[in-house]
Fold this protein.
Amino acid sequence: MGAPLKARFALARAALDGRSQAFSYGAPLPADDEWIGLFPVERAERVRGGVRFAIDGAGFFGTAGFAWSPEGEPPEPEGEDLYEHWQGPWYLWSESD
């Protein structure tokens, strides 16, 4: 991933970490198209052991974003979702349409 994404993620990391932890403990998920830090979240959903965020404009041909999974790689739901470790408990996520 390029330097601009790394810098943007670093600046948004505290907001993403805090909201992810809160969501994993049952706080209401953000409304569609809500910003978290520097990222426009198209939608968020809980996955076993964490949360994933579809980021508006992140996927060239489909939906993509970040997954927060402190227990390791998120489980793959049905379909062809892909995860790539990013940093710490964070993964890059893409959803096959």
Notes: The chain has a mean pLDDT of 87. The chain has one domain: 3-77.
